[in-house]
Specification:
Length: 395
């Protein structure tokens, strides 16, 4: 981060500095809107509210400010995911910007602190804090709310017909007391809520048109809000479908994958899931797929078509999705590519690929011994040993 006088002042009052990206984007702007929220996930009602506020108040930019740690304890997706998803949603709109100010540290995010830092950094800008009517009605519970009301302008986004009388009375009282004009912006009614979207994703329903496409893509690709694997049920099913040896091998691969995940900083739950299910279609033919999956397109590579022993991997990815309810693309890809690998494998893919090769139950020959020795420090070297063995065995 470059040296910046305002940031020095901000640090002196105990707040963390504003990033160079924010400074570059927002310096010289006259009217900045700050739109705070958990964005868990961001959806089209947020987008519309931001756009309505921007247009009504002629803001130069609306800064989406995903909360890092909410003051009121709530279960939310990680800050990094919510930030990235919000960025994906806003990427195509030049009037929107996403700030990492609140997500870049693990302190509780208070709107007052954020606004204080922004007024220091951008002293010539007119700063407006945008929030929903229900949040605003509870403003007396916010940290330093009186100072906050004196510090910045407020814009309340509200849906027609929602607590209009009560909201009008409340804002009039606040305006009189703090000598500030509080703008109200009506947004066309949209009954979209983050909670509803989360439960739709959890049961595998589509959420297109409720959220910006880019945010949907991000959420799905990263497995956000998906129901975690029901482990006892998955194990019972695997036990039924696989031979005893294959079942025990699957458990061992899952454990080995978790061990490697810990070493390489990968999500252990995802590693466990992928390891457990990697061979879930072993010994099955494409005809064994559930009928409702007729529309799911399995693309076998030429290589796979010529080597029947390898097709349980692509079939396994489909089965993991349809029979076991796995929705996480990373897990599905780790299963999909566990036999022959692919170019540029993700770390999770490599982990499952290698764990399958070195799990402790496998007879140790020269290649496996070397792979076991390499795995903890050089996963690529271990993966290379398996690939070499594949070339030999499949040739
Ligand atoms: Fe396999
Ligand atoms: Fe395997």
């Amino acid at each position: 981060m470059k040296k910046n006088k305002a940031n020095d002042e901000i640090s002196t009052i105990g707040l963390h500095p504003i990033s160079d990206v924010d400074i570059k984007r927002l310096s010289d702007l006259k009217r900045i809107g700050i739109f705070g929220g958990t964005f868990n996930p961001i959806h089209n009602a947020h987008m519309l509210a931001a756009e309505c506020a921007r247009a009504a108040l002629r803001l130069s930019c609306v800064v989406f400010m995903p909360v890092g740690v909410p003051p009121v304890k709530k279960m939310v997706e990680t800050a990094a995911h919510r930030l990235a998803m919000t960025k994906a949603a806003c990427a195509s709109n030049a009037d929107f910007h996403v700030s990492d100010y609140e997500t870049s540290n693990d302190q509780i995010s208070y709107s007052y602190n954020t606004c204080l830092a922004f007024t220091h950094q951008f002293p010539d800008a007119d700063i407006t804090f945008i929030c929903g009517a229900d949040a605003f009605m509870k403003i007396a519970k916010w940290r330093n709310y009186e100072e906050l009301l004196s510090l910045v302008n407020f814009c309340i986004v509200t849906r027609p017909g929602i607590m209009e009388g009560a909201l009008d009375d409340f804002t009039t009282r606040i305006e009189k007391k703090y000598g500030k004009k509080i703008s109200k912006v009506r947004i066309p009614a949209l009954e979209i809520s983050s909670a509803d979207i989360r439960s739709r994703i959890a049961v595998g329903e589509k959420v297109r048109y409720l959220m910006p496409d880019e945010a949907v893509l991000y959420a799905i690709n990263n497995g956000l809000y998906m129901r975690k694997l029901q482990e006892p049920r998955a194990k019972a099913r695997l036990k039924k479908d696989l031979s005893q040896n294959r079942y025990e091998h699957s458990l061992a691969v899952a454990e080995e994958a978790v061990r490697l995940a810990r070493i390489y900083g990968v999500d252990e739950d995802l590693a466990y899931e992928a390891g457990l299910l990697h061979d879930c279609a072993k010994g099955m033919s494409p005809d064994g797929l559930p009928p409702d999956e007729a529309g799911y397109n399995i693309e076998f590579t030429e290589y796979e078509k010529s080597k029947p022993a390898t097709i349980h991997a692509p079939l396994g990815a489909v089965r993991a999705r349809t029979v076991y309810g796995v929705r996480d693309a990373q897990v599905l890809n780790a299963i999909r590519y566990h036999t022959i690998g692919r170019e540029n494998m993700s770390m999770l893919e490599k982990i499952v690929f290698v764990a399958d090769y070195i799990e402790p139950g496998r007879y140790e020959d020269e290649s496996i011994r070397s792979a076991r020795l390499a795995a903890d420090t050089d996963i690529d070297a271990a993966a290379e040993l398996k690939k070499r063995r594949n070339r030999f065995e499949h040739s």
